[in-house]
What we know:
Blueprint: H1 2-18, H2 24-47, H3 60-89, H4 95-117, H5 121-139, H6 145-180, H7 189-194, H8 201-219, H9 227-234, H10 237-264, H11 271-289, H12 296-317, H13 319-351, H14 362-365, H15 367-380, H16 387-402, H17 404-429, H18 444-459, H19 463-475
Helix pairs in contact: 1-2, 1-4, 2-3, 2-4, 3-4, 3-10, 3-13, 3-18, 3-19, 4-5, 4-10, 5-6, 5-10, 6-8, 6-9, 8-10, 9-12, 10-12, 10-13, 11-12, 11-17, 12-13, 13-15, 13-16, 13-18, 13-19, 15-17, 15-18, 16-17, 16-18
Amino acid sequence: MIGLALVLLTPLLAxxxxxxxxxxxxxxxxxxxxxxxAFAGALLLLAHRPAPGRFLLVDDLNVVFIVLxxxxxxxxxVFSAGYIGHELETxxxxxxxxxxxxxxxxxxxxxxxxALLANDIGVMWVAVELATLSTVVMVGIYRTPAALEAAWKxxxxxxxxxxxxxxxxxxxxxxAQPALGGGMKAMQWTGLLRHAAALDPALLDVxxxxxxxxxxxxxGLVPMHAWLPxxxxxxxxxxxxxxxxxxxxxxxxxxxRFKILLAASHASIAAGTLxxxxxxxxxxxxxxxxxxxxxxxxxxAYSSIEHMGIIxxxxxxGGPIGNLAGLLQMAMHSxxxxxxxxxxxxxxxxxxxxxIAEISxxxxxxxxxxxxxxAGIAAIAGLPPFGIFTSEFLLITSTxxxxxxxxxxxxxxxxxxxxxxxxxMTGLCFGAPSPGNAPSSAAATPLLLHLGLVLAVGIxxxxxxxxxxxxAAALLG
Length: 477
């Protein structure tokens, strides 16, 4: 129970404390310490998992997401301390808004952690909405017209998505009532899975369609993705890191829980087929849009959409290897993309712009940022020896064994995105340096730690990590 308390109560209490702190340095330290304590609690859940309760559940699947999420939150809070300090010094942010920033960061983490640990489909829905609303506040924190527009777009599209997810949740509840009766018992994951064969398959099928569209909006799946590039481009860069590295995963986790339920109800539709279609459509759309981006943060926002397409396809194709590849891809993407945004945040501050046309020659003008960005782009593009190459190789070979045509389409989409990323990397990192200032004090430790982990997994996937992910993959069917 200590692990659960640390993961859930620490961010909630920290949010209350941070809302009253006006000193930036103190609030930044509290943010880091609270995130680190929550990460320690997540590690405790690895060693001891309490029995499922009425509202909370810890199993092989969600503990993967919890450990990954709290780790990325901790490193992002370290990066955020320097980044936001620079924004404060340059006048882009005012001290008053920083109270909202740090408090909302911890409130977002509470919502995400609660969504992942919920043993109740209603509590999970509320927690996802809480995480969304807190990030909306942070996206609009610069208070510029573009930032406010991005926040409103995020709020409106996110509200439509969560409303559809609510309707799907209600349909699942109605499907469970004949077997489990009314009340809370018909909303608990553990009870739903035990009686899955007795649930109304027609209601489950319709419910999953609404859930796929609703939570798919939060996950950035095409065509419900429009909020994501604006939120990345106009919000603070640390929020871009947690949006790509954490919030998209939480929405996808919610979908996976319902997919498990449909798989256990043998009379229901094949949820994987729908996920394969959405995944491929998302992959190809994002890969094409990568060639048209003019803003560096929008570029990597579409890269996040591309990878959510790949991950959704992986879980759709399923099987032991497909699910393992999806979990590994998800973990590697979270670590790599957050590292890229760490570098991009400092690049934008050093160059004074986010326009790709005005950024070049980073390896010459800012060698540390330039070469780490090269490594990050190589990793996210799926080049060996980085971990994403391992996950994509597993996915393509697994798909070839089951559906060769889909494997060809998947490979073409990945190659299309690879070409765009290689093109942008050449312009950003090499050639004649563009004018710029000395970079703000770069948070080197989080950046190098993320890239180092991705490299280490690509070189030799540790046995304990394989076993851990394989157990989680087995739950997905």
